[in-house]
Amino acid sequence: MSLASTASAKPIAVELPTLSIRESWPWILFAALIALLAIYFVGAEQGATQMVAGNAVHEWVHDARHLLGFPCH
């Protein structure tokens, strides 16, 4: 294959799928719920509001707590 034959090749048209807001709402709601759950575990899973007994969840998200500015010591 020569350079001249590859230069004259036509580009392939790529059609992007369209996604309406109505079709996106379930995914947006799901992502928001997951984000709220993650923020709960990072920010509030310690002390009087803890949902899981023990200190395991706090230790798993310890660095994220500091990164987001939550006090924990």
Please give a structural write-up.
- The protein is mainly α.
- It has a domain at 18-68.
- It has 4 helices and no strands.
- It has helices spanning 3-7, 21-43, 56-60, 62-68.
- It is elongated, with a radius of gyration of 24 Å.
- The model has no long low-confidence stretch (mean pLDDT 78).
List strands and helices in order, with pairings.
Layout: H1 3-7, H2 21-43, H3 56-60, H4 62-68
Features:
mainly alpha, 0% strand, 4 helices, 73 residues
Principal-axis shape: elongated
How far from one another are the termini? Answer: 67 Å
Q: What is the string of SSEs from the N terminus onward?
A: HHHH
Number of helices: 4
Q: Low-confidence stretches at least 5 residues in length (pLDDT < 50)?
A: none
Beta-strand content estimate: under 5%
**Mean pLDDT, as a whole number?**
78
Main sheet makeup: none
